[in-house]
Amino acid sequence: MKRTRHPKEFKIQVAKELIKTGNAALVARRYELSPNMVNRWVKEYKNGKFDDHSSTGDTVALETKELSQENDQLKKLLGEKDLEIAILRDLIKKKNPHLLKNLK
């Protein structure tokens, strides 16, 4: 039997199908492959072996920038919420000091 090299796209397709269905024997039978090979492809897919490394530098930089912007936005939002809580507690303390015991 001649050894066949399958393209990366085919391996990714088979791995995604196995993850979706959860039945290695069924997927392997459909594509006339060994169930062990299909399971190995899924393991490699989950470990990131099939990622496209040609453009990862650009995508990683872009993702890092987006995450950094989102992080800054969330920090600002959290700071605003903390300030709002502090102001509300001061108002409660001034108007109803007996209620402050319940907040702590």
UniProtKB/TrEMBL annotation:
GO terms for biological process: DNA transposition. One of its GO terms (molecular function) is transposase activity. InterPro entries: Homeodomain-like_sf, Transposase_8. This is Transposase.
